[in-house]
Task: inverse folding
């Protein structure tokens, strides 16, 4: 599954279609999970081995973590990757909702 950025939206690319991901919502879930752990941005950046500005980019919705970073975030924030991406706690349910709500992305026509 790849990703591309088109007109401010982030899409997860599958073979059949692109599923829109809300970068701001992902960032909010990361920020909320960090706060729930009572960690500062500095503590999280040290745990992940990345720069604080990268986390600020994620939480502001300007960037989306790479696949490996999602796995590390999941471990350190004690949230599933599914939850961080979709907001659904049940495994796989968020992707089903995104797929059912998906519309054709720009450039797919």
Result:
């Amino acid at each position: 599954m790849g990703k591309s950025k088109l007109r401010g939206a982030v899409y997860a690319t599958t073979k059949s279609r692109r599923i829109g991901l809300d970068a701001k919502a992902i960032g909010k879930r990361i920020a909320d999970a960090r706060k729930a752990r009572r960690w500062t941005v500095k503590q999280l950046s040290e745990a992940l081995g990345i720069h604080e500005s990268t986390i600020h980019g994620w939480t502001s919705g300007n960037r989306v973590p790479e696949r490996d970073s999602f796995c590390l975030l999941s471990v350190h924030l004690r949230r599933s990757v599914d939850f961080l991406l979709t907001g659904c706690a049940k495994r796989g349910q968020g992707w089903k909702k995104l797929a059912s709500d998906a519309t054709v992305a720009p450039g797919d026509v």
The longest strand covers residues 2-6.
